[in-house]
UniProtKB/TrEMBL annotation:
This is Purple acid phosphatase. Residues 31-51 are annotated as: Disordered. The keyword Hydrolase applies. Its EC number is 3.1.3.2. Residues 1-27 form the signal peptide. PANTHER family: ACID PHOSPHATASE RELATED, PURPLE ACID PHOSPHATASE. Residues 182-376 form the Calcineurin-like phosphoesterase domain. Residues 87-175 form the Purple acid phosphatase N-terminal domain.
Length: 472
């Protein structure tokens, strides 16, 4: 068995070295990023408590260190050290339900959530769900529990515990409002650095209702314990407000020969409500909240004309009732518009734009958010590379704080369709004030202070008479 473990670890290490070499060869100029962060594990919890991984923290400065970490991970798993205790995140399911997700090292813990509007163990309701786990090379996850609770009242604070024992920690979340105004926090390419921590602190103080994340969550990049530490890092926010995410390239985690399936960890840990929107994949879905229809698309699954994702998007757009949801927002990972020199010409950007841009334009999508490029850029309303009053506003916000640093080089001169661009970490806030107007602000991380560096008022295209004919 020891020889087999060494063989697996050596093969995985070789694959990771090869991936690291390719990543270095394709890199671009970036200033140095901040170090990784460590969130200590809570004390006094038993193995059935929803908690996060050990006090170990990982500083990933190069692919050689990643190889060493992967080797350590293999042997740690074989020794079955009790490190894996993972915390909670929540996501919306339909209009009045919430999915509670958490992981425990105790495989006998039932998937039960007790909840109610009062704190202190006096919970009025209880729901049960499912539990599962996954394997990745020699890593085996803890028990992943999912429970859908509801129906829930809008704009209401609920208290809840995970597991059958109601003496466990009392968490709380607030449901989104049923009508305007509603505020979204938007951040991409988050990672787990000190910049990430600063970004999360700023988001925490924004009084947002729902968080949107257009891909690249943990930057685990096949090293699975980083998924565990990411869960611990975001839990203070992700257990209190719904986090709605889509995948990026760092979620693929496919290793030739060794692990041939893509998105294993992402799909197992971050179950989004794709079934409720008629999608056949967790990689693309939609949801509605308080007068906003949000479409989450997959840049790294088939998007060509006639593909399952393309056909689903056509069907989903046809179901949108702009009288009920006057705002229409889409998220992708690889941006369709960018004047940054990074990631130019990639098929996930060029090909997806060619396949789907017309669909979004004819549906009068108001805003399209993207990540991937580690900088901020906002475009005017655009269609087919030209300013167009009926096109979406494209916003690239892959600047959450990842370990790879910033993409600091832009093409010059700045095109007229590029309204604002800056290579800084930060996050955005989109507040739909009413059925016609919304305010977008981008908050730069400047010496750990949240500074509003870009701001614009938006009008929904549904209310623009010259654009309405496109929907007919």
């Amino acid at each position: 068995m020891a020889i087999r473990v060494r063989e697996f670890c050596s093969a995985a290490a070789f694959a990771l070295v090869f991936a690291g070499v390719l990543r270095c060869a394709a890199s671009y100029d970036r200033p140095p990023s901040r170090g990784m962060v460590s969130v200590p594990r809570s004390d006094g919890r038993d193995s059935s408590s929803p908690d996060q991984a050990s006090d170990l923290w990982i500083d990933v400065n190069g692919f050689l260190i990643l190889v060493l970490e992967l080797l350590i991970s293999c042997f740690v798993h074989q020794l079955r050290l009790k490190w894996l205790k993972i915390k909670v995140h929540i996501s919306m399911v339909g209009k009045d339900k919430m999915r509670i997700s958490w992981i425990t090292e105790d495989f006998s813990t039932p998937a039960i959530v007790n909840y109610g509007t009062t704190k202190g163990g006096n919970y009025q309701y209880s729901s049960s769900g499912t539990s599962n786990s996954y394997e990745y090379v020699l890593y085996k996850s803890g028990e992943i529990h999912e429970v859908v609770i509801g129906p829930l009242l809008p704009n209401t604070t609920y208290h809840y515990t995970c597991g059958a024992d109601i003496t466990h920690e009392d968490f709380q979340f607030k449901t989104p409002p049923a009508q305007f105004p509603i505020k979204f926090a938007v951040v991409g390419d988050l990672g787990q650095t000190e910049w990430t921590n600063s970004t999360l602190q700023h988001i925490s103080g924004s009084n947002y209702d729902v968080l949107l994340l257009p891909g690249d969550l943990s930057y685990a990049d096949v090293y699975q314990p980083l998924w565990d530490s990411f869960g611990r890092l975001v839990e203070p926010l992700a257990s209190q407000r719904p986090w709605m995410v889509t995948q990026g390239n760092h979620e693929i985690e496919k290793i030739p020969i060794i692990h041939t399936h893509s998105f294993t960890s992402y799909n197992s840990r971050w179950h989004m409500p794709f079934e409720e929107s008629g999608s056949d994949s967790n990689l693309y879905y939609s949801f509605e909240v308080a007068g906003v229809h949000v479409i989450m698309l997959g840049s790294y699954t088939d998007f060509k004309n006639g593909s399952p994702q393309y056909n689903w998007l056509v069907s989903d757009l046809a179901k949108v009732d702009r009288n009920i949801t006057p705002w229409l927002v889409a998220l992708i990972h690889a941006p369709w518009y960018s004047t940054n020199t990074a990631h130019q010409g990639e098929e996930e950007s060029v090909g997806m734009k060619e396949a789907m841009e017309e669909l979004l334009y004819e549906a009068l999508v108001d805003v399209v958010f993207a990540g991937h490029i580690h900088a901020y850029e906002r475009f005017t309303r655009v269609y087919k590379d030209q300013a167009n009053p009926c096109g979406p506003v494209y916003i690239n916000i892959g600047d959450g704080g990842n370990r790879e640093g910033l993409a600091s080089e832009y093409t010059t001169p700045q095109p007229k369709i590029s309204a604002f661009r800056e290579a800084s970490f930060g996050h955005g806030e989109l507040e739909m004030v009413n059925a016609s107007y919304a305010r977008w602000t981008w908050h730069r991380n400047d010496d750990d202070q949240s500074v509003v560096a870009d701001s614009v008022w938006l009008r929904t295209l549904k209310s623009v008479s010259n654009c309405k004919q496109l929907m007919n």
